[in-house]
Amino acid sequence: MNELINYQSKKQQIFNAFSKMDIGQLQILLDDNKTYQDATKETFLEKLQEIFIQFKKHEDTELFQCYGRCRSKECPNRGKSGYAFVGNKSNLYMKLIFEETESDILDIYHCTEFSIPKQTLKLKKYSSLDIKIKKDEEATFKPSVNYSIKLQQCDSAIDELYNMVGDNLTRDVAIYWLEKHNELYHSMLPPALSDYMAFNSFKYLYYHLKDLEEHQQFDEISVKANKEFYNFSINNQLLLLKWITKYRDHFNEAYSLCPYFIYDDGMMKGYDHRVKKILNSVSVYDYIPTIIFLHNFDNHCFTCS
Predict the structure, then answer these.
(1) Is the pTM here over 0.70, yes or no?
(2) Which residue among 45, 70, 247, 253 is least enclosed by CB atoms within 10 Å?
(3) Which of 174, 204, 173 is nearest to 188 (CA)?
(4) What architecture is domain 2-137?
(5) How far apart are CA 267 and CA 224, in angstroms?
(6) Alpha carbon separation from 63 to 92, 111, 116, 157, 190 (Å, rounded)
(7) H helices then E strands: how many in the chain?
(8) Which residues of 26-41 are buried (b: 16+ CB within 10 A; e: fewer)?
(9) What are the pLDDT digits (tens) for 181-228?
(10) What's the pLDDT band for 143 if we cut at 50, 70, 90?
(11) Going by DSSP bridges, is the β-strand pair 105-110/93-100 parallel, antiparallel, or unpaired?
């Protein structure tokens, strides 16, 4: 009887730890020998901690529990029960199925088609924070020969560029590297090898350098805009307004270049340290015309409002 009471107490403590976003308590309460969402306890809690951080960034201090069930017509978990944990400030939520007996929790995992009674709370589709476990993060994952080869190719490609750039990654070097590894990148796009965590650093690096390369299209327009800007006095409000109106769309498109020169630790969390070093070494000088244009437009667009 005492064991049953302890088990029930343990279950309630687990639910309370979720509500309080207490990873330390969950580390104690969850079973080292069980898997959660097919991952080890350690991996599951790492993913869960990332979700808790998102809640806290939105000023949530507690998660409310809303009982519900899986309503998918195709999922084998249809009808299984769990909770949506909803932020007390943000209304962001996390949907989890809890497989349990009367005395224990057997498994915990994300549910895509989770539904709660309408009168309880209306969950917005795009406010869900989901625990995502990739195939190579599952406890039983065994790498295939193809997986191992691709992983080695990705590591070699990152290492190659890391050793080439030093403190200054020029556009020419980036283009050379992108062309060389184009086939490798496209071999990992859906549906081939898209659901594996280990390839993310290479794909992130390739995607962002490719995006930077495509910003080259802005240079010609930026040069033209800069020439026009310096050919009239900024005290001429009419000409300044015409210039701003003419190049507003270009500003909106080119503005997406800015984040490429500010890679902070939050943006790079979970990626290979070499990737951060490479992206932080992107040469500003290759984008001078567009950077000057952005500076001029941003400094004067409000003076004509």
Answers:
(1) yes
(2) 253
(3) 204
(4) Roll (3.10)
(5) 33
(6) 9, 17, 15, 43, 34
(7) 11, 7
(8) beeebeeeebbbbbbb
(9) 999 999 988 877 778 999 999 999 999 898 888 777 788 899 999 999
(10) very high
(11) antiparallel
